[in-house]
Amino acid sequence: MKNTKNTKNTRVKAYVSIGMLSSIAYLLMLLNFPLPPFQGFLLIDFSDIPALIAALLFGPIAGILVEFFKNVLNYIATGSQTGIPVGHIANFLAGILFILPTYYVYNKIKTRKGMTLALILGTSTMAVIMSVLNYFFILPAYTALLHYPDLRNYVVPGILPFNIIKGVVMSFVFMLLFTRMQAWINKYTTIKSA
Fold first, then answer.
1. Is the dihedral of CA 156, 148, 97, 99 positive or negative?
2. Where are the alpha helices (DSSP H) in 134-194?
3. What integer pLDDT is reported at residue 34 of this predicted model?
4. How much of the chain, in percent, has pLDDT values that exceed 70?
5. I need a labelling partner for 61 at 20 to 30 A (CA). Which of 15, 48, 96, 172 fits?
6. Contact 28, 39 (CB under 8 A)
């Protein structure tokens, strides 16, 4: 009986936390900014950080849900130039490609060094796979829907370095938080798995 009550409490905490972290991620998504040498449509924001915290606390599905909800909220609030949420889908995929490798590596090596390694892998995975997705799907979708010129030759000189810089900046900001939160995250995940 007590176990059932604890499981129910943990589940309720997870749902409430996912909702709160999704709201924070949505607000952070609105505070985006361009990097001068790159095209204006490439924006940096810190909305993947709450998703990563959700994944570390409640597992990968929680991180994916935060990524999903923040993009749905943003699409409802701001819409999309194309009418189809191409940018939001790209943001969702980039977020997942960043948080999942980070989560899985940190789960194996629960140290600061492990988190640093995890963030490097998350950044690399996101940068490389998003370059491939941009080349074959995302940029051709913008070309087809908005009659943009073919931007695929911009992947290597623009999108790849932008995503690496974005990952490094997010990783740096996350590590500032993580150094203060590591003991709490480890304690919470130990309690959750008990």
1. positive
2. 139-146, 160-193
3. 92
4. 94
5. 172
6. no
